Each structure stands twice: as structure tokens, then as C-alpha cells.
Amino acid sequence: MTEKVRVSWALGDHEIEYRWVLEEAPAGRILVFLHEGLGSVSLWRDFPDRLCRALGVRGLVFSRWGYGASSPRRPWERWGPDFMHHQALDFLPNFFRALGVEPGRERLWFYGHSDGGSIALIYAAHYPEGLEGLVLAAPHVLVEEVTLESIRKARQAYLEGDLKPRLARHHQDPDSAFFGWCDAWLDPAFRTWDIRPLLPRVRVPVLAIQGYEDEYGTMLQIEEIARLAPRVELVKLHGCGHSPHRDQPEAVIEAVRQFFQAEGWARQDQG
């Protein structure tokens, strides 16, 4: 069951859909799930529940503005190349405040998928207080042509194929979700988007996961993270595309469990 909270931030006042996972877990740590460019609470399916049970930690799942059952983006509103910076540096602190989450009092981990992984990195570079670590699945740190080509194909599938009705099962306004993401990435100004200069400032441990068959990015993305950030472990998965938690959930859960255990607090069993 999801709830909603009103978040006031630089881009407006928005109702944000969210849900807590494994609320009976010990207080003090929260695993925050940051979805991909077309994601939502419902598109995670049961993965947050499975991962939080494996770790014995409370989770927080939400749909960003424009997605799921959160306030939709109005048709004339456009997200610029800095939209992920807005999410990381303005929205997230205000979202946490609206929920009564205090980084530092609560120790945070992020599980960021795709754009969500990029948002996690931007946040970590600027707000280290209370942050213990990151799990990044298919994150982006620079723009590759393979990414843009796949987004162009997705746009054609949305306009001419069955992508729109499929997304409508997870977003109250699928146009809001799709074109907010698609138009931002395909904006010519986005080609120079590059967050690699921030990576040396990410001091927390990072687990970066990438599939060899990812149609939206290559191994360069996580290899650049490992080259530039000080504490990075890589997991490269065969037979895995852009959504490791859907393509290989057991492998991802086990990799995260071992990573958290190495940091000294994840429980030994998988729940």
C-alpha cells in the first residue's frame, strides 16, 4: 500500500507517492530506492521487499515527480539537462524532511537504478552526512551514443507500438513520465552531460552493477566510477540487460548482501 506526502521544492509543490518496506526492521538504517527514467513504485515489483528482507533493513520506495501516482509533469513543463541535479540536490533533501527522515540520525544507503544511480552519485558527492554507501545498477556518468539510440527506439515504440499502454499500468500519466525523460535525454544540450568530475568526492563505498547486454549503456559507465571514486566494487553480469534486479534478481541480491556484510552490518542469512 502506497501513501502520499506533499513536498515543496524549487520546482513546485508536488504529491509524492511512496511506501515503506519491512517497517519492523531495526530503526536507524534506511535503504532508499531510486528508480530509473521510466520507473515508479509499482515497477520495482517485489524486489525492494526481497532485498530488504535479505539485509534485514527498512526500505523506502517512491515515485519521483512526474512518475507513478506522484503529481504528473504538466505538458508544458520541460526537464533540462540538469534535471538529475535538481532531484539529488533539492528534491531529495526536501523529501526526506517531509517524511521526518534525518540523515545522520538515520544512516542511509541508496539503491539507484539507471538515472536513479546517477542521482545517487550526485547526492553522495554533495551530501555525505548520514550516507553509508551506494548500490548502483546500470548507472550513467556520461552520455554514450548507444544510450541515445536506445532512447530514440523507445520513443518510436511509445508513439507507434505498445510501450504507452504498458507504461500506463504503472503511471497515472504515461506522457508525463515518458516525455519528461525522453525529451531531456534527447535534448542536444544533454550530449555534454558528464558527472565524472564529481566522482572523486564520493567517499562512501560503492557497489556498481552492469549487465553485458545492457542496451542503454556499456561497461565504460561503471569502469569510470571505479577509476575515479575511491571505494568501488564492480559486478559485471552476463545474460543481463538494463534492469539487473529484473534480469538477475538472485545474483543482485547476493552481491548486495555480501557487499553490505563486508561493511559490517548486513545479517548473514537471506531472509
TrEMBL record:
GO molecular function: hydrolase activity
Keyword match Cell membrane: no
AB hydrolase-1 domain: residues covered: 31-255
Keywords: Hydrolase
Signal peptide positions (record): none
SUPFAM superfamilies: alpha/beta-Hydrolases
Keyword DNA-binding: no
GO CC, one annotated term: membrane
UniProt name for this protein: Alpha/beta hydrolase
